[in-house]
Design goal:
Number of helices: 8
Distance between the termini: 35 Å
Strand order of the largest sheet: 2-1-3-4
Radius of gyration: 19 Å
Order of helices and strands: EHEHEHEHHHHH
Number of strands: 4
Structural class: alpha/beta
CATH topology of one domain: Rossmann fold
CATH class of one domain: Alpha Beta
Shape: globular
Length: 192
Amino acid sequence: MANLLPVLTAGICQEHYLLTAILQRFNDKVRVGNYVLEDSTLASAWTFLLLNPDRPIAVVLETWSEDPERIREIDDESRRRIESNVPSSSDRWHLALAIPTLKAWALVDDHVREEYEKIHQHPELTSDSEERARIERDNLRMLAARIGDWTADRPFDLDKLKAKSRQARELCAFIEESWKPKPVPVTTADWF
């Protein structure tokens, strides 16, 4: 389909693979895009809204926190940035927060989690903080590299994620709503 709904996320590239696998149920409706930084992701979203006044867009950002105050700050700031640049577009965009990360969303699926547990390293086995960080990065890379294979024959359990995450439920509802046919306004010429 030519007018796939853009769903943007921020990160190097692992987030793209994770979100693509998570949203594979909608692969005929969405196109996942990836920008390195949150700033560029949000700027791309509002630029898209300005250039495409008739098309919707969604943004998925990781919070890297489960602290309600921090999550509220991220939500408020992200919304403010989009709304300040495109004030009349609130019905055409959706912001979803992956709390705390897209990795956590991906590991909600039992099959993905089981496969991941077979290959991941345990960062808690080292006391060196730099080594723990390196292991976490490697684990994320391995998950992102393999999640597509793991969900190819056994689709991602999006219903389980939706049951656990309001953000995921609302994102899926926005995607579905964006694909409903819009009523065509009737003009006086149509009556005569």
